[in-house]
Amino acid sequence: MLTDLEQLTFDNRFVAELPGDTETINTRRQVYNACYSKVLPTPVKRPTLVAYAREVAEFLQLSPELCCSEAFVQVFSGNQLLPDMQPHATCYGGHQFGSWAGQLGDGRAINLGDVVNQQGQRWTLQLKGAGPTPYSRTADGLAVLRSSIREFLCSEAMHHLGVPTTRALSVIATGEYVVRDMFYDGNPKAEPGAIVCRVAPSFTRFGHFQILTARKDLTLLKRLLDYTIATDFAELKLDLSSETAYLDWFAEVCQRTAAMIVHWQRVGFVHGVMNTDNMSILGLTIDYGPYGWLENYDLNWTPNTTDAGERRYRYGNQPAIAFWNLAQLANAIYPLLGEERLAELQATLDTYKRAYEQGWQVMMVDKLGLGMFNGENDMTLCTDLIELLQAVETDMTIFFRRLALIPLHADASDELLIEPLLDAYYVKEQLDTAYLTQLYAWLRQYQTRLKASDQPLEQRRQRMNAVNPKYVLRNYLAQLAIDKAEQGDYRLVNELLEVLRRPYDEQAEQETYAAKRPDWARQRAGCSMLSCSS
Ligand SMILES: Nc1ncnc2c1ncn2[C@@H]1O[C@H](COP(=O)(O)OP(=O)(O)OP(=O)(O)O)[C@@H](O)[C@H]1O
Ligand SMILES: [Mg+2]
């Protein structure tokens, strides 16, 4: 463990190997022929630590004492730079809600540099909300405490759930106010500001490639792609002189993206703003903005108020949107492959569909504890269940967690059979005869199917509990932590972080955090609907 932040070892490859912007003044502009612009974080008045994630600190070799020190707060609020840091914001573009938006870039994210730890792993440190950059367009480069707490808690919760994600080292309140019109309805308010330090092996997005192709800068496109393959995908050991290197790389991105989406569907995470600038090349969940967790299972649900009309980013549409986004990435690298490789590129894109389909089946088998996917019969079992879950308001997390507890003996009465599931229902009056008849029928089929799978009961339950979390960052829980934090009380943020470290464990003393959404949270801002304002 390091005792001094100056002992961190930096090796900033992105900056060293790719061309940077020749302009060094921090003015908003279009940046050509460059992958990044050097820019300093804006100092803040009174930074205070809200929380830090000890696992992230650990792999960066930062001791708990160091994380609670004044030096830590000064560095991770952007007030003080370490000697080997090379702060910069990167240039990317993207499709937002399906339309090409041109240059976006790190408008409020500043990479400090890449730390290499004792294991030789490279981790980029990135401040989000550390002030304007050349890519800030008309916005202020800042972030508010509420959105920063949501980003911090959710990235860590996702990691502990086993979902590929960017990580968060710390969230620091700046002691300054940031003006936001939360619902874009002409009611701006001063809110406390904050900065999250995100950590990932790389923050490269689909949009980093797209912007270069859009500008026909194929020389830099090739350089960035070669760099990415050599650095971020080094373990693939691709030979860059081989004709298939780019296709092999793209296949890997498709696989990783499919794996990530399967995880989202498994835990009921809805990203809310799956624009191509929010898609990580490494298949990591990135940009925790107007995301939400499914409470009642609903394929049509989107947490993002900006998306309420079209519902492009609804839960049930995430797999299709990921495919669409990958198609945009395919378009971006197409000029490097040429027409003679178009058919192969298209075929590679289809690996996403296969990987997703297969991953989904395995995921459902695990969630239901079936042992193995049994073709059409299991498909029907799954689709019937999905219909049932949507027929009445059913809490997804509680339902799947409790499914492991239903009695298996055929002579168990209907009442006994649904007893473990009753907690999952939001409106008891919806459980009418018609619904119950269907539910019992499904449960009987499920019982029969489980018996046929012939697994020892305890083993099956353990397997199911390992994929059906008991604790997720329920929207209202995050909001409760935010309400307290805005009063200067950070205990609930830290308590939630602690509970979410072990989402699959029973944690009997923490039951309250597994409770379904209370009625007060049904229509409250921040609980059931989120705006992009952050
Ligand atoms: N307050 C802000 N100041 C400057 N730029 C911003 C601000 N909010 C968003 N942007 C920029 O607008 C674009 C789209 O925003 P989006 O909400 O997807 O990202 P974000 O939440 O800022 O960041 P990230 O994707 O890095 O998590 C990005 O280029 C982002 O940097
Ligand atoms: Mg974004």
From TrEMBL:
- Give the required cofactors: Mg(2+); Mn(2+)
* Key word Plastid present: no
Catalysed transformations (reactions): L-histidyl-[protein] + UTP = N(tele)-(5'-uridylyl)-L-histidyl-[protein] + diphosphate; L-seryl-[protein] + ATP = 3-O-(5'-adenylyl)-L-seryl-[protein] + diphosphate; L-threonyl-[protein] + ATP = 3-O-(5'-adenylyl)-L-threonyl-[protein] + diphosphate; L-tyrosyl-[protein] + UTP = O-(5'-uridylyl)-L-tyrosyl-[protein] + diphosphate
Q: Which domain of life is it from?
A: Bacteria
What enzyme class is recorded for this protein? transferase
One Pfam family in the UniProt entry = SelO
EC number(s) per UniProt? 2.7.7.-, 2.7.7.108
Cite a single GO MF annotation: magnesium ion binding
- The record's active-site residues are 277
Positions annotated to bind ATP:
105, 107-108, 128, 140-141, 198, 205, 287
| Binding residue positions for Mg(2+) | 278, 287
Q: Which residues form a coiled coil?
A: none
Keyword list (alphabetical) reads: ATP-binding, Magnesium, Manganese, Metal-binding, Nucleotide-binding, Nucleotidyltransferase, Transferase
Q: Which PANTHER family match?
A: PROTEIN ADENYLYLTRANSFERASE SELO, MITOCHONDRIAL
Function text: Nucleotidyltransferase involved in the post-translational modification of proteins. It can catalyze the addition of adenosine monophosphate (AMP) or uridine monophosphate (UMP) to a protein, resulting in modifications known as AMPylation and UMPylation.
Q: Can you tell me which family this protein belongs to?
A: Belongs to the SELO family.
Q: What HAMAP family would the database entry show?
A: SelO
Protein name in the entry: Protein nucleotidyltransferase YdiU
What is the source species? Methylocucumis oryzae
The taxonomic lineage of its organism, from the top, reads: Bacteria, Pseudomonadati, Pseudomonadota, Gammaproteobacteria, Methylococcales
